[in-house]
Amino acid sequence: MRTGTRHGQAVTSLLLAARTIVLTRRRTGRHAELCDAAVNVVTNGLTSIAVDPQSVPTPLREEATALAHRIVDDDHPEDSPLWPPPGEDLPVTSWVHPDRAPSLVA
pTM of the entire structure? Predict the structure, then answer.
């Protein structure tokens, strides 16, 4: 886990808080457009980056942090390239896997 700096600790806390918020909102009926597998993809990805940030490239870490801010602020997380499209039947995997990482290049 990120423990080297206060900034790292804050980012780790933010990622884990965003994970909890997604799960809570899903349970209470928000984010109903996402299937359970899509919710798992988002939450597994946020957790994986919080636990082992060096396992992914910097642009992906930065996008995950931006997504976490959007989730916490409830400010259109679906605009992030890491947010799964609604209704798609996704495999339960993590987007931090190097072979499955989304392209952050527009």
Answer: 0.77
